[in-house]
Amino acid sequence: MKQNIKILVIEDDDSSREALLILLKSIGFTVKGCSSGQDGLGVLSGEPFDIVITDLFLPDLNGIDILTRVKESSPRTEVILVTGYGSAETAVQAMKKGAYDYITKPLNIEELRIIIDKALEKGQLVSENVYLKKQLRDKYEFANIIGNSQAMQQLFSRMKRIIKTDSTVLILGESGTGKELVAKAIHFNGNRKDKPFIAVNCSAIPENLLESELFGHVKGAFTGAVKEKVGKFEAANYGTIFLDEIGTLPMHLQTKLLRVLQEQELERVGSNKQIKLDVRVVSATNVNLEEEVARGNFREDLFYRLNVIPILIPPLRERIEDLLPLTKHFLDKNCRSMQRPIMHIDKEALEALEAYPWNGNVRELENIIERIVALTEGDLITLRDLPANIVKSYVEGTPTSVTPAGIDMVAAINEIEKRMIGEALQLAGGVKARAAVMLNINRTTLVEKMRRLGIPL
Questions:
Q1: Which residues form the signal peptide (predicted)?
Q2: Are residues 325 and 180 in the same domain?
Q3: Is 289:173 a contact under the CB 8 Å cutoff?
Q4: Do 363 and 175 touch, CB atoms closer than 8 A?
Q5: Beta strand 30-34 with 51-55: parallel, antiparallel or unpaired?
């Protein structure tokens, strides 16, 4: 790895510069040397370096000037200053301007080596942090929330209008519709995208621990509080806190949350000290909070505080035109993760998925597609590959009675046969003889029907 690390040495003393270059090269670094500040800045303008080691006192420029220029043009390059005149005042000035460290002559080679390693470690952490933040922003771009329906386009339009504000948002929707995904998209596309996003599931934390989780506590606040704890609100300071399942919050904590929202400050459990906050609050619920207010289960004033900008995510059954792009998205995602060729779904299987009520919404669809990709042998998904409850729902939905408008009896019978054969094959694990027994017909009859109906053999 070290041969990929580039170090520039700026030193006007020829013997000192050459000795340092030989040493760094022997360790394994790629090195280059310059005898003046201007030459060093010229080299830096043409190629990137991970570390610059520069003498503090040069004939043309001093090390502080070089440090300033380096940080302006290449903020991730670490600068180590070297001088023969130890000065605490100069060291402090250098560190304030962004120097990684400061070392005096005569150089202690082992000390310099440790400083270089730590500087590289810091640079790697910074690069990883920048990369991870970019990955998060890319992951939660609006384009990654799948939906072509009019309802979803209206949702995107509202989200785009609010991302640059700090307004409090209440996300409404059934379980599995993607409320946390929307909350993250609002955060990672907004003004606070480089600050923390802290998610709290209010229903998943025991009531006796929830106050401490949200607001923190001081040492000795209660039995077991052996040290102070930073709560989720403090951890989210300058960023966003996402309060999922807010409707389950106990009444006494609703009162404290209301005060935090009103005052933009909190007290840790067991403390009288006020801690100032600058936090955007995004909450979510799958219950009707207005009904909970009417029942006396939720504070009306807190509801109005949270419901500044409501966002409603429609259930999947109300935007069934999004099912195909969602299905393709989850197929691609799981095929890549399981390292298998991209799978496709036939017309009948897609019709069965579209006819299913999807009470678990997008989360249920995602889980089912993952299961299908894991268990299906071929690259084409047919009715037999779907879960039995989806096949059953599809088969039971077939029209079998004659209406005044009439019915295509042959087509209806063919459709019933096709679905029943698909269900039997699925239950039989694809074994035709076993499926024929379930249908109370001969295996040869089953094969003939499969050929006639276009069912893959």
A1: none
A2: no
A3: no
A4: yes
A5: unpaired
> Given this model, what pLDDT does residue 143 score?
58
Question: Nearest-CA neighbor of 212 among 172, 177, 253?
Answer: 253
Host domain of residue 329: 318-453
Chain mean position to CA 408: 50
Select from 277, 309, 286, 303 the least CA-distant residue to 186.
Answer: 309
Q: What is the CATH number of the domain that holds 116?
A: 3.40.50.2300
Write down the pLDDT at residue 315: 94
If asked whether residues 160 and 294 sit together in one domain, one would say yes
The CATH code of the domain that includes 401 is 1.10.8.60
- Provide the pLDDT for residue 283: 98
Pair (158, 208) in one structural domain: yes
Residue 439 above 80 pLDDT?
Answer: yes
Closest CA to 79 of 2, 130, 7: 7
Task: Specify the amino acid at residue 330.
Answer: F
Residue 354, helix vs strand vs coil: helix
Separation of alpha carbons 403 and 382, rounded Å: 30
22, 37: one domain: yes
Q: Which residues pair with 171 in a beta bridge?
A: 284, 311
Per the listing, tokens 């509202």 go with 158
Total structural domains in the chain? 3
As a dihedral over the C-alpha atoms of residue 224, residue 226, residue 230, residue 232, rounded to 10 degrees, the angle is -20
- Residue 79 reports pLDDT greater than 60: yes
From the CB of residue 134, how many other CB atoms can be counted at a distance below 10 Å? 10
Residue finishing a domain among 314, 345, 379: 314
Helix axes 63-73, 37-46, angle to 10 degrees: 10
What does the pLDDT look like over 184-230, one tens digit per residue? Answer: 999 988 889 888 999 999 999 998 899 999 999 988 888 888 888 88
Q: Which residues contact 221 (CB under 8 A, 6 or more apart)?
A: 212, 268, 269, 270, 271
Max avg pLDDT among 67-71, 101-105, 121-125, 281-285: 281-285
Domain check: are 162 and 242 in the same one? yes
Count of CB atoms situated within 10 Å of the CB of 385: 23
Q: List the 169-172 sheet strands across, edge first.
A: 197-201, 240-244, 280-285, 169-172, 309-312
For the record, the structure tokens of 94 come out as 């250098």
- Residue that finishes a domain, picked among 135, 152, 172: 135
What pLDDT, on the 0 to 100 scale, is given for residue 168?
A: 96
Q: Are residues 326 and 426 in the same domain?
A: yes
CA pair distance 101, 90, nearest whole angstrom: 12
Question: Which residue in this structure is represented by tokens 């270059």?
Answer: 21
Q: Are residues 242 and 161 in the same domain?
A: yes
